[in-house]
Write a structure and sequence with these properties.
Elements: H1 3-11, H2 16-47, E1 52-56, H3 62-74, E2 84-86, H4 88-99, E3 115-118, H5 127-138, E4 143-147, H6 150-189, H7 194-202, H8 207-243, H9 253-284
Antiparallel strand pairs: 1-3, 1-4, 2-3
């Protein structure tokens, strides 16, 4: 192998690891972006899974029972599709399946009531709204009582503010880590070209002439890194959809597309700005500092 070929290989930086590192950073940013975008939807989904129980009197006729159902459907806060009627026999059967004990065999009367269960919209999952809804339903003839888990409602309300602060701190941390990792990776990739850059400057080449090919290459590498990150995120989403079908309820295809499209300019900007800073720093260094 000739001396010129060896020198050429030494001055040619290896961008493979830089591209992979940047794509990993973009993947982490995209993943955390997905979590942030769907966090509120997941909280709303959880809120709408909290059951509210309407206990009915024993002597109600079928017409009166249907009247209670119509009352529930008239309430704006109630999700119509969540209204479910449970008879006394069904409640006893559910208790038997849960605890493995048949109350009928003990010779005891069925202790359960006829009841309705329903869920409310996430926006009304607040203590004052639920108290008002409880009051309206309780005053209807034939309704014995209305129950819901007050501690769960309070816990959801208290944790929303904490989750917001935590998301802000984690997002800032990821951004700082991303910028630092990208800059250091590109600096190491261009380290072998420091003498070439300085020699071009010494023979009279302008800063723009020296920086232009590196910046164009950086934008291309940023695009490649973004495409790799998008492919990895798409594969992850496909796996999640297959193994966790419950998350399909909060999936927003357009939001996911917008996020993926946003990764492309982010990758190109991170790569381009870091490359410009590295080249600019090497142009301003003294020759003795290059060794």
């Amino acid at each position: 192998m000739s001396t010129s070929n060896i020198a050429k290989r030494r001055t040619k930086p290896n961008y493979t690891y830089a591209i992979l590192s940047v794509s990993l950073v973009l993947f982490l940013l995209g993943f955390f972006g997905l979590v942030l975008l769907h966090a509120q939807e997941l909280i709303q989904l959880y809120k709408e899974q909290v059951n509210i129980i309407v206990e009915l009197d024993d002597q109600l006729t079928e017409v009166q029972i249907r009247g209670v159902e119509q009352l529930l459907k008239q309430q704006e806060a109630v999700l119509d599709t969540s209204i479910h009627y449970i008879s006394k026999d069904e409640a006893a059967l559910l208790m038997q399946e849960e605890f493995g004990e048949d109350f009928q065999d003990l010779g005891l009367p069925n202790p359960f009531y006829e009841m309705y269960t329903f869920n409310v919209r996430a926006g009304t999952m607040q203590a004052d709204s639920l108290e008002q809804l409880q009051m309206v339903i309780s005053e209807f003839p034939g309704v014995n009582a209305v129950y819901y888990q007050e501690n769960v409602i309070d816990e959801i309300s208290n944790n929303l503010k904490k989750l917001g602060y935590l998301a802000l701190v984690v997002s800032l941390f990821f951004f700082v880590v991303a910028v630092t990792l990208v800059h250091n990776t590109i600096r190491l990739a261009l380290y072998s070209n420091r003498f070439l850059i300085k020699n071009m400057q010494l023979v009279g080449a302008s800063w723009g002439f020296i920086s232009r090919p590196y910046l164009l290459r950086a934008l291309g590498h940023g695009f490649i890194a973004s495409v790799l990150a998008i492919a990895a995120l798409s594969a992850m989403l496909f796996w999640v959809r297959r193994d966790i079908p419950q998350l399909l309820l909060v999936e927003d295809a357009m939001t996911f597309v917008y996020l993926l499209c946003l990764l492309i300019p982010i990758g190109m900007l991170l790569y381009g700005i870091s490359t410009y800073q590295v080249v600019h720093r090497q142009l301003t260094m003294r020759v003795d500092d290059l060794y």
